[in-house]
Every structure is written in structure tokens, then in C-alpha cells.
Design brief:
The protein has about 525 residues and is an alpha/beta fold. It has 2 domains: about 200 residues, no CATH class; about 300 residues, Alkaline Phosphatase, subunit A. Helices cover about 50% and strands about 10% of the residues. It has an 8-stranded mixed sheet, sandwiched between helices. Strands 1-2 form a two-stranded antiparallel ribbon. Helix 3 runs antiparallel to helix 6. The protein is elongated and about 90 Å long. It starts with a helix and ends with a helix. The relative contact order is 0.14.
Length: about 525
């Protein structure tokens, strides 16, 4: 490289490489914006290049470009996942679900969009690799000159020293802007792997299980439907526009409860998860053990903890699970102790496939009635139902069928209604409208279900498993989720009011506590 171009080329390379590791997320999208910050990894690599200047050309051609692609991808995931999803991406656990996510995208997203996304990803990665190789080649040529090498090496050492100082003195950190090192994120991921798969696997500390051996005399033989309403979060109240959009559906549910001679009490709970990993919430509420990560989940599943399905079964109930989203074997069912699990095949749905989950929640409830509640004679039923219609990407949403006698038939929906529903695909860059529409359907479905069971002895618990993804919930949204208990006037509701529940469908803050801590409260309300 000619001497007169050394400095401009080195400066341009440093600006490009630094920008590639200091960008931030543009919430709530997958886009990025540039920030005025310094990259510690860049300083370390420049210092390495200056010290090993005799091997600089080889480093710039082979090692550094590859390393840079890995760092850029890691930084993008590190800043984007919390913005879209609401929590950090866990490479060890979340990667195990990428196959299902990919299958969902292939099935429910138009092929041209999926192909464009894959092509775009390949092109971006290739462009990053080419740009990194050119930039590092220019810097390798620059450090071949003694004067340039001294300046670049000295500047890199100074940046590293200042970063070290920010770790010790807060005053220095306030005046210097450093991007969060990508290497730190990779170290966190490595610790996750070592903690769960290493030779000395960490055993998470678990809380005590509550006593679930309570005679359920307060229920007086009522059937109990515990519905984990997927992605039902406090955002449906906290976001004014969404609350207004859902107001008619909520009014419809309130009217159905009133007309059926029932009452409803509500509260907020602190969910153990956010934006996904619903199974953590399910396990927390069905065992009374706080399960906030996958490590605790595995540990509880490997134990012999008591569960609500087992406890209800000991009191004479038939415990079942309604699992419309279950596409493969579910060994966890044995841990929970259900008498029967209605998986995808058992529900025998033959209608139009609405999205990845296919089966509308209204159909699942109608099938539950026909297969379980219509039996005579029968035991009272304790049913756990994780809904699927409100699962991301929140559509397409089936039409609501007000005539429940038609729901199980092949003619449940008029063809024009199906066509309109299928055409209303979610906008993956703006999921809030689709989410609100799916939640409106869910509330209408439960309103219809309450009317269908106006004269029956039924207690219905509707609880959100977690807030929707951060792209819908908003920045810094709390983990709060609503819980509603619908029952006939009596001792169950009175005890819940005494525990902090309030009348109506609008919960009040503060939250009653963590989800697992609700279990003794529920068992106390159902007991003697």
C-alpha cells in the first residue's frame, strides 16, 4: 500500500470495523442503528495485529475475517433478541426449538418471504465477511510501517486500559462510551452449556413444594378448567390502544359471566417467563415451585414433586390435558400425572388449518365437552388447557362460531369466512394488530363457553402464561399477567377476594406475587 493512502485506509477500516460491533437495535424491529461507542474487541485485535505484525497478512486473510463474522452475528443476536423477544437468547436451550420455529415459518409464511429472508441473510453474512477481509487487509498493510504500527498499537492499548478503568471507577465509565463486549455474551452462553452439559453440572436450587393434600370440599364437585391463555399479558390493559380494541370482547365476556349467574374475580401475577418458554409458567403453577429457567425446569421434571393433576386425582377427579399444539411425544405428561392427554391426533380436527397450530381453541373446548363432560356417569374433571390461537405469530385466526353445535362439524365455518381469515396473515414487522385480533377471538371463545355452561357446576380459571414478545409488549414491560377466576357465587370467590383478588375482569396492581405462590391460595379457596 502506498504511504499516502495508509492513514485514510486505516481510518476507514477502523470506522467500519468499530461500527460493526457497536450498533444498537431499533425497537421493535430487527433493524439496527449506529451508536457512538468503542469496541473493546476491535482494540484487542488491532493490538494483536500490531504485536504480531510479521504475521499480519496471514491473520488478516484467515483468522480475523472469520472471527469478525462470528462477532458481528453474535452482537446482532445479543442486541436484537431482547428487543424482539423480551429476553436474552439462550443458545443451549433455545437452539433446540429452532427446528420447530423453522417448520412454522415454512408452513405459515409465504415461500417467497422465507426464501428472501434466507437469501438476504446469506448475502449479509457474505458482505460482512468480504468487508472484514478488506478492512483487516488494509490494517495489516498499515502496521507494516513502523510509525503507523506504533500509533495504532498505542491507541489500541490506551482503549483497553480505559475500558479496564471503567470496570473499577464509575466516574471514568460515565465519560467513556463502550459497547457491551460480544465476547462477554459468548462467555455467558458457554457458561450455560457448561452448567447443564459439563462434567460438573450445576444443580439449581429449588424451593419447597406446597402441601397439595387439601380436601376440595369448597368446590362441591365442580369441574375445574384451568386455561393457560397463551401470551395473555398485562399489555392488553396497559396499552391504551390495545385496551380500547379489546374492550368489546371483554364486555362480551363480562356480560356472559353475568347472564350465566356467575361472578369473576381477577388479579395480576408475576410470570416466571416473558415472550415465550410457556412451559416454565405451566410447571410453576402446576407444582407450586418457582421455575424461572430451563435448568430449574429440567431439575423439577427429574424429581418426584407433587402436581395439581395428581392432587385432584387423589380427591376423586379425572385429570386431563387438552394439548392442541402437541405435535410429538410429550414425556412431561407422565410427570404431571394426567389420566389422559388429548394431543393433536386425539382431538381429531378435520377442519381448515389456521396457522401453524391449526386447531382453533373453540374447537378444542367443544371437543372437551363432547369427549369428557358429556359422559354419564363420570367423575368431576380437572382439565388443563394451554391455548394455541394466541400463540405467535398470532394468526391466521379462525372465525368465531356462535352456534356451538356446529363447531365439531366439517361445516363449522362458511367458506367466505375461512377465505377472509386465511387472507389476513400477520405482519411480522408489526405483530400488535394480529395479537389484538387473536386475543379478541380468545375472549369471545371463553364468553361463548361460559354461556354454553350457564347451568353447570364449573369453575374456570383463565391465566396468562406470559406477556407477548417485546415487539408487542413494549420496552421494559413487566412480567405481569392477568388471572380471572369465574365461578358461581360462594365460598371459593369469597376466599379469593380475601386473598387480594378484586371483582370484575380488570386486575389491579400490585401483582399478588409470583405464579407459583398462587398455588396455596387456590388450594385454600378450594379446600374446607
Amino acid at each position: 500500500m502506498r504511504p499516502w493512502i495508509t492513514w485514510p485506509a486505516a481510518a476507514a477500516s477502523l470506522l467500519l470495523l468499530n461500527a460493526s460491533l457497536t450498533f444498537a437495535n431499533v425497537w421493535p424491529t430487527a433493524k439496527i442503528r449506529w451508536e457512538n461507542a468503542l469496541s473493546v474487541e476491535l482494540a484487542a485485535c488491532v493490538l494483536l495485529l500490531a504485536i504480531g505484525h510479521r504475521q499480519a497478512t496471514g491473520l488478516a486473510r484467515r483468522l480475523l475475517p472469520t472471527l469478525w463474522v462470528v462477532l458481528v452475528l453474535g452482537h446482532y443476536l445479543d442486541v436484537t433478541a431482547p428487543g424482539l423477544y423480551g429476553r436474552e437468547f439462550n443458545l443451549y436451550w433455545d437452539s433446540q426449538h429452532l427446528g420447530n420455529v423453522w417448520a412454522m415459518l415454512v408452513r405459515d409464511v409465504p415461500l417467497w418471504i422465507t426464501a428472501s429472508a434466507v437469501t438476504g441473510f446469506v448475502l449479509v453474512v457474505s458482505a460482512v465477511g468480504i468487508a472484514a477481509r478488506v478492512a483487516w487487509s488494509w490494517l495489516a498493510a498499515a502496521v507494516a510501517h513502523r510509525g503507523t504500527r506504533a500509533v495504532l498499537g498505542g491507541a489500541a492499548a490506551l482503549v483497553l486500559a480505559l475500558f479496564a478503568a471503567t470496570m473499577v471507577w464509575e466516574r471514568v465509565g460515565a465519560s467513556m462510551a463502550f459497547a457491551d463486549p460480544v465476547s462477554r455474551a459468548y462467555l455467558r452462553q458457554a457458561r450455560y452449556v457448561v452448567a447443564m452439559a459439563g462434567p460438573n453440572r450445576a444443580a439449581p436450587t429449588l424451593g419447597e413444594s406446597p402441601n397439595l393434600d387439601t380436601p376440595l370440599e369448597g368446590l362441591r364437585g365442580a369441574d375445574v378448567l384451568l386455561a393457560f391463555v397463551e401470551s395473555y399479558g398485562a399489555v392488553t390493559y396497559d396499552n391504551p390502544a390495545m385496551a380500547e380494541q379489546l374492550a368489546p370482547s371483554r364486555s362480551g365476556l363480562a356480560a356472559a359471566i353475568r347472564d350465566a349467574g356467575r361472578e369473576v374475580v381477577s388479579a395480576y401475577l408475576d410470570s416466571p417467563t416473558f415472550g415465550g418458554s410457556s412451559w416454565l409458567a405451566h410447571l410453576s403453577l402446576l407444582t407450586g415451585v418457582d421455575v424461572r429457567d430451563q435448568y430449574a425446569y429440567v431439575a423439577v421434571m427429574a424429581s418426584s414433586r407433587d402436581t395439581l393433576p395428581k392432587a385432584f386425582a387423589r380427591q376423586g377427579y379425572r385429570s386431563i390435558a387438552l394439548m392442541p399444539g402437541m405435535r410429538q411425544a410429550w414425556p412431561e405428561g407422565a410427570f404431571y400425572g394426567f389420566d389422559f392427554i388429548y394431543g393433536r391426533n386425539d382431538l381429531e380436527y378435520q377442519g381448515p388449518k389456521f396457522g401453524w397450530w391449526s386447531i382453533p381453541d373453540q374447537y378444542t373446548l367443544a371437543k372437551f365437552d363432547a369427549a369428557e363432560l358429556a359422559r354419564e356417569p363420570r367423575r368431576p374433571v380437572f382439565a388443563v388447557f394451554p391455548t394455541s390461537t394466541t400463540h405467535a405469530p398470532f394468526g391466521p385466526v379462525a372465525p368465531y362460531q356462535p352456534d356451538w353445535s356446529k363447531v365439531l362439524g366439517l361445516d363449522a365455518f362458511a367458506p367466505p369466512d375461512v377465505d377472509r381469515a386465511m387472507a389476513d396473515t400477520p405482519d411480522l414487522t408489526n405483530l400488535a394488530p394480529s395479537y389484538a385480533k387473536a386475543m379478541g377471538y380468545e375472549l369471545a371463545t371463553f364468553a361463548g363457553y361460559v354461556r354454553e355452561h350457564a347451568g353447570d357446576n364449573l369453575v374456570m380459571i383463565l391465566v396468562g402464561d406470559h406477556q407477548p414478545v417485546a415487539a408487542v409488549s413494549g420496552k421494559g414491560a413487566p412480567h405481569d399477567v392477568p388471572i380471572h377466576v369465574v365461578a358461581s357465587p360462594g365460598v371459593v370467590l369469597e376466599r379469593l377476594r380475601a386473598a387480594g383478588f378484586t371483582d370484575g375482569l380488570e386486575p389491579r396492581r400490585p401483582a399478588l406475587g409470583s405464579m407459583h405462590a398462587l398455588v396455596p391460595t387456590l388450594m385454600g379457596a378450594f379446600g374446607r
